[in-house]
Fold:
Amino acid sequence: MTRPLPLRGFATTLVAALALAVVAGCSGETSSESSEQGSATTNTAAQVDLPPVTADYTWPEASTPEGHYPVTVKSCGEDVTFDKAPERAVVNDNNMVEMMFALGLTDHMAAYSAAGPRLRIAAFKDDYEAVTDMGPDYFKLEPTMKQNPDFVFSGWNYGFSEGGITPDTLAELGVKSYVLSESCRRIDDTLAPATIEEWYGDMRNLAAIFGVPERAEALIKHWDERLARVEEHLPENYTPVPTFSYDWGTENIGGGLGLTIVPELYRKAGAVNVFEDLLEMWGGVSWEAFVEKRPEWIVVTDYGGRAWSGEERIAFLKSREGIDTVPAIKNENYLILPQSAVNPGIRIVDGIETLASTLYPEEFKDLVGTEGFGLPPTYDVS
Structure:
């Protein structure tokens, strides 16, 4: 039985201060664009209504639409069929763990791994504590199978890797899986750049797998309203601000390149990823190429671990010789975002709002500091 998701105090992440009018749940078909993720299909076109969502809202008891199962979703272009909701899911990485929590699926999880200890959403504290924590590193096959999983949710380079855990190795052990759509480009770089709409497809597919399609629709409607609000606040006829995504690197400098979801997130915030035309996933570029692009802002990724924090990354950039002519470095224009605000996950809209209000403070001054805008409160497990 799916435990209701407590949203009291969760307004900063999912719910605006005003009530959200929720559309009807999905009708047995959900679609996502790009990477052949396709639609979730069920036997009937059941429709479920949710009451309005407010800041102190709780998901009603799950009520799977009649005839919902079997349901088939596409995972990196491959059909995966479920006859019932999984009961012992293992999930890898913060952004995917948060997607499960947001859909109210905590009671369907056996364990999670690679969830950084420093920047966990405070409203999910009870959820994190209710599920077995397998540690800060990406999962491995033997400890994962000790959790007796019937489902695994991960992504290529988010835990799945050739020579390690893959959907095929899990299938051979009788465990079904779902792959985060953006990561499919790690095994097929001919796919178009990742989009928010594609990630919505992930949310719809997860909700279909667990028999709660109406919850995905409620969340997506809310996120769309917030994105529209950002668009309305951007200045007229603005010139997108050249921005670099800094994730790692000393010998070279690495970040989210053109195939990732990062360029779309920047566009929604009134920025432009200076390497969006480099159609690769998260990858490195030379320091010379970085200097040549002259970004005006640098968005720094923080994975929430104990080492190499966002602040430490900035300190490194400040100490690096030969890049002080870059406007972002010269003017110390840095913004730190958690990794789940720059990878497909429930914090991407938070990150868009935060970046937009940083780049255009005058236009967003009425929203900054209000409930339901920007990054949510976090906590440190220690």
Notes: The two ends are 31 Å apart (CA to CA). Confidence is low (pLDDT under 50) at residues 1-38, 42-47. Residues 111 and 146 are 10 Å apart (CA to CA).
